[in-house]
Amino acid sequence: MIGGTDQRPPVEPAVPRHGRMPRHGAAATYAKIAASVIAVLAVSATAVVAYAAVDLVASVTAKPPVELENEKVLENVPDIGAMEGGLNFLLVGSDKRPEDGAFGDPEEESAVLNDVTMLLHISQDHTHVEVVSFPRDMYVSVPECPDPNDPAGEPLPSLSSAKMNEVLSWGGFGCVASTIEQLTGVTIPVGGIVEFYGVAALSSAVGGVEVCVVERIDDDYTGLHLDPGTHSLTGIDALAFLRTRHGVGDGSDLGRISSQQTFLASLMRTMQSSGTLGDPIKLYSIAKAVLSNMTLSNALQNPAQLMSIARTLQDVDLSKIVFVQYPTGYTDDRSGVVPAESSAILNAALQADRPVAINPAATGESEFGTVTDPNAQPAVPEAPATGDPSATVAPEAPVEALPEDVTGQSAAEVRCSAANAG
């Protein structure tokens, strides 16, 4: 039940619309997209260029976009090569069941809840990245939002307290973005909604993602059954790993977030080590997987801009890509969680564009955390760079050391999921 001063029954948005964006002729839009794709792929084999342009355009136009009020900040941003400046990207994972019934009856079991809500923050100078996961059962206040079923009519009222995963069905994607903006104090211009098959397609596009398991995991709810050891997951197996809650940690959504962070850290290592983000053909495969399985905001309808964001991550030091679970504490009745005092420190770091660091003991000592890979080799420090001793080196931004109750990991760390013993 959603709490608030003036409640309405939750609605399922057909196409959330927030704000007024300029409309362009279809022919001109398609031509711009095709030209951008061809430019990005020009260094790849010429035989695939024409196909790629047409194929990605078809993927983009297959789904209507979602709209964000703050996406106007991206106007006139170059769309070839790595993007300039920083960015906040909102990723929402919807539990809407696919029409084929593979995950249950889409009419009976779909509530269109945002079971996964993540904020990707890329720094202005591209030296650090933070990925913040917001627990689905966290109570938040929701600002007044345009009604996705009647954008020109009366807005939906603000809510004093609602669980995070109810916001998508209440006010659409734009309302989720506004809620995160209000919570963190940052501006979110772009984002998208991914459904079940999107994760499966992405893991396959990169050739599999390695995950580490220290104890056998058995979860009949998602069909995940993994022996101890390292596994390369693709397709539906990868999706099951990201969905499992009953099989890992303490059986809660917080445990699931910790496992998701190990997966995403491994995905980032895979993409950098295999040269995926610098290979136009591999980058095309990823763009195809994303565009075919996500509903993206207006500003990302140009595939080249999506590639530009990906290319920005190519050279970021893995130790400076940090996955953070938004700090929370349980309510008295343990029916959900609420933001902890330390969330203000994380919010301030995001607002000031400062890199953050996780306390090494925080995640391992948490009841819902992951564990260090027992087989991992200690990292070898890089040799100091040589060159002109008089050359001026730009000072690194001061790192915000997060309190001990904030869990997470960097992309350089190999952590393992532990089975739920409950």
UniProtKB/TrEMBL annotation:
UniProt family annotation: Belongs to the LytR/CpsA/Psr (LCP) family.
Keywords: Membrane, Transmembrane, Transmembrane helix
Source organism of this protein record: Agromyces ramosus
Superkingdom assignment: Bacteria
Pfam families, per the entry: LytR_cpsA_psr
Name of the featured protein: LytR family transcriptional attenuator
Residue intervals passing through the bilayer: 30-54
The Cell envelope-related transcriptional attenuator domain, residue ranges: 114-272
Region (Disordered): 1-21, 364-422
